[in-house]
Amino acid sequence: MNGQKRDQPTPLDAAVVTLVDPARRPMAGTIPQDEYDLDTPWHSHDMHQLQYAFSGMVAVEDEQGNYILPRTLAAWIPAGVVHRTKIHLVRSASVLFHPSMIPDAGDCVRIIHVSPLMREMVMGAMRWPLTAPLDKTGLAYFNAFATLCAEWIHEEAPLRLPTLREPRLEAAAAFTRQNLGACDVQQVCKAAGVSERTLRRRFRAAIGMSWEDYRRRARLLKAAALLNDGRLSIGSIAAEVGFESQSAFARAFKDLTGSSPREYRPS
């Protein structure tokens, strides 16, 4: 690192976490996470992981971006993908599969839509913890689950906020995230020390979206976290993240998540 000391762990420091001794674990199983209250360090697993929140929200980050995982969606984390996760006292679970069960698993985190069938299969899978052997019924169950996952993981929800590597672009992105309620492109350019033309060109080249699209995505992901928190009204949240009206916010939120803000908010 050019002789500089790294004070914070990075993806380069990631360890492989096996969860259960590979010599005695089954081909698939589940880990309930209802009591977890942690921010994990960068790590990877040697099994594919389907992370699902029955309530609340989980946050996942990989080298390509940050993802939110509301209860209506699931995170697919292929074996070997370096990531870190924030789970704070939500009712959640992970379903783990041996890599051979889903060969075409991808190479990054994906947020995927949860159908009623997937939700029921996650709930049913809790019968077989990863710490116990699989009986014949369990093996048949997880084989069917894996076959369906191979289809489900290609129905990705656009809930990733891309990571920007170039210092000036990251400065622009950070200013945007910190000022969602009231920031325009001129303010962002001034904060990052770049021209508007340069910002627009480099943003699209780096992450495939315009700065306006990035700001809109950041606003909606922040809104999702505030809705999950439950303390502010929907109108207050819309204003907090920079929407001019509650109706415009509701339309944009449903377009992104598939749920209205009222449907998304915990009951």
List keywords for this structure.
alpha+beta, Arc Repressor Mutant, subunit A, Jelly Rolls, 5-stranded antiparallel β-sheet, 9 helices, 2 domains, disordered N terminus, 12 strands, single chain, about 270 residues
Write the layout of secondary structure elements.
Elements: E1 15-17, E2 28-32, E3 37-39, E4 43-45, E5 48-53, E6 57-62, E7 65-70, E8 73-77, E9 83-88, E10 92-97, E11 110-113, H1 116-125, H2 136-152, E12 160-162, H3 167-178, H4 185-192, H5 196-207, H6 211-229, H7 234-240, H8 246-257, H9 261-264
Parallel strand pairs: 1-4
Antiparallel strand pairs: 2-10, 3-9, 5-8, 5-10, 6-7, 6-9, 7-12, 8-11
Summed up, what is this model?
The protein has helices at residues 116-125, 136-152, 167-178, 185-192, 196-207, 211-229, 234-240, 246-257, 261-264, and strands spanning 15-17, 28-32, 37-39, 43-45, 48-53, 57-62, 65-70, 73-77, 83-88, 92-97, 110-113, 160-162.
CATH superfamily of the largest domain: Jelly Rolls
Note the gap between the termini. 48 Å
The structural class is alpha+beta
State the CATH topology of the largest domain.
Jelly Rolls
CATH class category label of the largest domain = Mainly Beta
The percent of residues in helical segments reads: 25-40%
What is the topology, as strand order, of the major beta sheet? 2-10-5-8-11
Low-confidence stretches: 1-6
Mean pLDDT: 88
User: How much of the sequence is in beta strands?
Assistant: 15-25%
Q: Helix count?
A: 9
Shape: globular
Question: What's the gyration radius in Å?
Answer: 20 Å
Secondary-structure element string: EEEEEEEEEEEHHEHHHHHHH
Q: How does the major sheet shape up?
A: 5 strands, antiparallel
Total beta strand runs: 12
